[in-house]
Amino acid sequence: MKALLVENIHPEADTAFARAGALEIERIDHAIEPGELMQRLKGVQLLGIRSRTRITREVLDAAPDLLAIGCFCIGTNQVDLDAAAEKGVFVFNAPFANTRSVAELTLASAVMLMRGIPAKSNAIRRGEWHKSAKGAHEVRGKKLGIIGYGNIGSQLSALASGHGMHVYFYDVEPKLAHGNARPMNSIEEVLEISDVVTLHVPSTPQTRGLIGAGQLQRMKKGSFLINQARGDLVDIDALAGAMRAGHIAGAAIDVFPKEPASADEAFESPLLAFDNVLLTPHIGGSTEEAQAAIGLDAGIKLARYAFEGGSAKAVNLPELEPGTLAEGRSRLVSIHRNQPGYLSRLNEAASAMGLNIASQYLNTSGAFGYATTDLEGAVPADLLQRIEAMDGTIRARLLTR
Ligand code: NAI
User: Fold this and answer.
1) Which positions ≥6 away from 206 have C-beta within 8 Å?
2) CA distances from 46 to 133, 209, 295, 313 (A)
3) Dihedral sign of CA atoms 22, 26, 32, 38 in order
4) Which position among 24, 36, 259, 289 bears the catalytic label?
């Protein structure tokens, strides 16, 4: 088995592979063009990429040995997920590995805003010495409103409580409150009660434009807004208006409706006009610890699929957790079209060969099905060919211990 890791993936990925089984690893420290990638993918079963390597249908066509792609990042839109599914290539990512980094930055931002640090830091660079306690506050005893109590929101809740903040939150799903955090019935209730409001929801049709002029007006006079989630959640012009009017005292914004595509492009925003705004270039989750966690997370998922057939948290094909293969058994892994009769045909084929099925799992999703079948005893040499030739099979593998 061979893995190709491009774009300087964190060495924790190697740690995950080494724990799982024998694997040859080739590393490239930069993104490579589709032409070169197609050459290099010959004989490669596992591919690790980050966000700059595009995996098109053409690339997948040129990679018949490829079993799975690990996106060592959050997003997966650099991969043609449908084409990968049609070829039986599983795609994994590491969606939550950087959430602690965001939660820490959000808490730090709340502290900075309540002390007026962005404005004071900007002033001192201009040679102005604003040595004053006026308007500077501790976060202890203040109210933090969290909108979206998922991975980041709930971790932030615990960190903020540890700093003596009173936490109020709203989520569309019922969530277990951490510590003394209080669930609220609506976003409006959170906006009205909080000294600092922070957003931790995904970008969806329901959340786009979540905070506009009306919502900002419902926030307390002198309160702060933090958006380190997605750029389209907040109407930036409305936020600039609310700050100009003195209603919102400051903001920390890490994500923007329009972000530069690269370091060569200039950043523009109406928020540049304000001293009391902490602006960061979409780095909420960008830490070395997060990179290591991503390396381990995506590495474990790739290795588990390669050596055990486990596909938990796959993004394009059905999830299955068949567990560790028992000694003396073989595991037939088959990705197939989700159509009536596939499993019975597979079982009939096994039974016709005199094979006993020790355990079997199936899951389907949309047009695709995924089954693992653990077989006892010696497996005939032509089993795999027979399953591959069977109507509905997209791809099959045999794992042994
Ligand atoms: P998550 O999926 O764990 O949590 C999101 C929560 O929002 C869920 O509990 C969901 O039920 C809730 N939610 C969805 N729609 C809602 C609505 N209309 N009102 C209230 N709650 C709603 O996501 P996670 O990992 O906590 O990430 C949160 C956000 O942070 C995402 O937008 C993500 O893209 C962003 N993010 C930003 C990073 C950065 O670098 N700045 C890095 C990582 C994540």
Assistant:
1) 172
2) 57, 39, 14, 16
3) negative
4) 259
Tracing tokens 């969806």 back to the chain, one arrives at 204
Q: Are 185 and 162 in contact (CB under 8 A)?
A: no
Sign of CA dihedral 147, 149, 151, 152: positive
CB 318, CB 365: distance < 8 Å: yes
What is residue 53's three-state secondary structure?
coil
List ligand 1's pocket residues with C-beta within 6 A. 74, 96, 98-99, 102, 147-153, 170-173, 200-203, 206-207, 228-230, 254-255, 282, 284-285
Measured from the Cα of 207, ligand 1's closest atom is 18
Place of tokens 């709930």: 154
Burial class (CB in 10 A: 0-12, 13-18, 19+), 188: middle
Task: Clarify whether 189 is annotated catalytic.
Answer: no
Backbone angles phi, psi at 94, to 5 degrees: -135, 70
Active site residue 86: no
Angle of helix 151-162 relative to helix 99-114, nearest 10 degrees, comes to: 50
Q: Are 291 and 13 in contact (CB under 8 A)?
A: no
CB 306 within 8 A of CB 331: no
Nearest CA to ligand 1 atom 4: 150
For the chain, the first-to-last Cα distance in angstroms comes to 15
The token pair at 389 is 């030739």
251 closest CA partner among 105, 103, 104, 110: 110
User: Which amino acid, 140?
Assistant: R
**Over the stretch 333-360, which tens digit does the pLDDT of each residue have?**
999 999 999 999 999 999 999 999 999 9
Please give the pLDDT value at position 401: 79
pLDDT digits (tens, 9 = 90+) for 304-335: 999 999 999 999 999 999 999 999 999 999 99
Amino acid letter, 315: V
Q: If we measure between CA atoms, which residue out of 229, 184, 194, 201 comes closest to residue 215? A: 194
Structure tokens at 170: 């709203």
Q: Edge to edge, what strands does the sheet with 143-147 contain?
A: 182-183, 166-170, 143-147, 196-199, 223-227, 248-253, 277-279
